[in-house]
Amino acid sequence: MTALSAPYAATTDVHVTGRRVLATLIDSVVVGAAFTLLAAGTDSIEQVGPWEWVSDAPPWASVLYAVAALAYFVLMEGALGQTLGKMATGIRVVDERTGATPPGYAAAAIRTVLRVVDGLLGYLVAFVVVLSNPRRQRLGDMAAHTLVVRT
């Protein structure tokens, strides 16, 4: 039996591209809000236009933010298979071998690190890759052997 026809992840379960896009937007708001709170806490936000702000956060705050953002994805997806965005949109990350269980921390870390590549050009790379393969996997999913399915 192939991973595509695994008993728990029917082929139609992976057709969640619209939900993935919305989940990514929600997670971006969550992670962005965390940065805003951190920058405000370090008093490093400056308004440079009517709708434009910049932050000159100290290096320790930038490192703390990066670690927290990575931890958000790795811990949430590794243990639960879902971030807040995925919970809100009714999708989850699963191990492609079982089609049902959360991927674990190692796979979630691989997915998270590859967000750097998948996120190029405003996640255009991920969007094109997802639409070009039958299991609707982005590069991070392929490397981590995960699928994103409906809950």
UniProtKB/TrEMBL annotation:
Pfam families: RDD (PF06271). Its main location: membrane. Residues 18-144 form the RDD domain. InterPro entries: RDD (IPR010432). The chain crosses the membrane at residues 21-40, 60-80. It is found in: Membrane. It is a multi-pass membrane protein. Keywords: Membrane, Transmembrane, Transmembrane helix. This is RDD family protein. It comes from Geodermatophilus arenarius.
